[in-house]
Amino acid sequence: MASFYLQLPEHHGDKSNAYTSPFYQMDTRGQDENKVLTARGCHTSPRVKVNGWELTTEGGILKLHRAWKVKNFVKGLEFFQLVAAIAEEEGHHPDLHLVGWNNVKIDVWTHSVRGLTDNDFILAAKINHLNLEGILSKRANVQK
Known about the structure:
Mean pLDDT is 77; it is low at 1-27 and 29-40. It is built from 2 helices and 6 strands; from the N terminus they run ββββαββα. Strand 3 and strand 4 form a beta hairpin. It has helices at 73-90, 118-128; strands spanning 18-20, 25-27, 54-58, 61-69, 95-99, 103-108. It has a domain at 51-144: Gyrase A, domain 2 (2-Layer Sandwich), CATH 3.30.1360. The strands form 2 sheets. The protein has a 4-stranded antiparallel beta sheet, with helices on one face. A two-stranded antiparallel sheet has the order 1-2. It starts with 17 loop residues before the first strand and ends in a 16-residue tail after the last helix. By secondary structure, it is an alpha+beta fold. GO terms for molecular function: 4-alpha-hydroxytetrahydrobiopterin dehydratase activity. Its EC number is 4.2.1.96.
C-alpha cells in the first residue's frame, strides 16, 4: 500500500490537542467535554486539495464532496462499512449517501464549525486510500 504524509499546521499552537494515526495527525479539539473547536480553526478558503474531492457549498456551508459508482447496492453498503471503520477510528464522521442502487456520495465537513477544518481533509485523504477493488463499477467514476 502506498503511503504519504499530510503536513498539518501546528494545530493553532496547541500540540496537546493532537494525536497521531498511521498516516496523519488529527486535531481532537471539541471531542473533550471541556474543549470546544471554534470557528478560528475553520477553513474559509482552503488551499489544501485532496485528489478527487471537490469543494461545494450547501446552505452556506463549505464541504468536501466526492461521488463513486459501485457495482451494486450491496457493494455500496460494503463501501460505507469501510468508511465507517475509518470514521470511528478518527472520531470524525462524514455524511454518507447511497443514491439509487449504485451511486455513493460522501460529504465531509465539521458540523461544530459549520465548515471545513484540517480533520476534513485528513479524513478525505484516508478515504482515498481505501482498497475499493471489487466494489467500484468498471465504468468511470463520477465526481458529482
